Every structure is written in C-alpha cells, then in structure tokens.
Amino acid sequence: MPDFYVDELTIDAYEYVTSCTKSEIEELISELVDGDYLPKNVLGPNNDKLSKAQFDFSEKLNKLVNVYYSLSKEDEEILESIIKKYV
Questions:
Q1: Are 11 and 45 in a shared domain?
Q2: CA–CA separation, 18 vs 8, rounded Å?
Q3: Same domain, yes or no, for 31 and 47?
Q4: 16 and 49 part of one domain
Q5: Are residues 86 and 45 in the same domain?
Q6: Contact at 8 Å (CB) between 33 and 42?
Q7: What percent of the chain shows pLDDT beyond 70?
Q8: Which residue, 28, 66, 68, 86, is most buried by CB atoms nearer than 10 A?
Q9: Are residues 47 and 31 in the same domain?
C-alpha cells in the first residue's frame, strides 16, 4: 500500500487511491467486499465469480433497489412472484 508521512494526519481518499498501484487497489476492493463495506458484485465482469450477463443482471437489480419507493403495488407483486418461483 502507499506510504504516507506521519505529519499528514488527514489523507484524502482521492490522494490515497491515486497513490495505489493497480494490484493495491484490487486488494483494497477485495478487503472492502470481505468486510461487507461493498456488495460482492462490485467486482464486476472481470471477476471469475460473475459472468458479464450475471453482472449486467445484478446491476439492473441494484437499480430496482434504488427505486424501491417508486414501485407500484403491482410491481412489487410481480417481483415477489418471480422471487417465489426461483428462491
């Protein structure tokens, strides 16, 4: 990970990330996912765990989460029936 001097008590997130190598950023993201600070699907289509189609589908589901309060009762019932069918 990047080195910072002790006299720098506050480190801006941008400064920290731009000081990291690609492998250090990957390690940081992995740690954030493992610590439940980021969703597991954040690793995206380049991660062996998710195909491109799975990643795209997951992104769509995340968008639904963000508009939850805008869903109609009918929308919720449709989603609930899909969930019951497969889960």
A1: no
A2: 16
A3: no
A4: no
A5: yes
A6: yes
A7: 78
A8: 28
A9: no
pLDDT at residue 13 above 90?
no
Say which amino acid occupies 38: L
Tokens standing for residue 13: 């997130």
Q: Which domain holds residue 79?
A: 41-87
At 19, the amino acid letter reads S
**What is the phi/psi pair of residue 8, to 5°?**
-95, 95
Structure tokens at 14: 């941008």
* Cβ burial 28-57 (10 Å sphere, 16+ → b, else e): ebeeebeeeeeeebebeeebeebeeeebee
Q: Which amino acid is located at 43 in the chain?
A: L
- Alpha carbon distance 7, 22 (integer Å): 26
Tens digit of each residue's pLDDT (9 = 90 or more) over 57-68? 888 888 888 898
pTM: 0.41
